[in-house]
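Quick question, first post here. What does this chain look like in 3D?
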Amino acid sequence: MSSERAIQIPVEMIHYGMTKIAQLAISRGLAETCAGTGATVNAVLPGPTSSEGVNVLVEKLSQGQSLHDFENTFFEEARPSSLLKRLTTPDEVAHLVVYVCSGLSSATTGAALRADVGVVRAVI
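> Answer (accepted):
Ran it through. Tokens below.
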């Protein structure tokens, strides 16, 4: 599990982004090490996610705003590149994890797969 912050690192999160890009290097290296064995190694990169920890932070920062209003402001000001303009849910991230852990992804290895609400401004 990595993060979209691995490939789009904001200045206030350099320390976090550095650890997440390292995870991508490790997952790719492990995929290469496993070449020809039938094992696959991939990284999942969630975007801003409505997790318990994020919800606590949002509650502290929202200053009485509803979650909906806070989310609108956040994506307008802090993450304007998001195409979905909302937080992803843990279930949505889990669906991608289930896919990469299943036989359906048998031809996918060494990849960085995003569930990032379209926040990364890249086509690959």
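The helical segments are 14-33, 52-61, 67-77, 90-100.
The chain has a mean pLDDT of 94.
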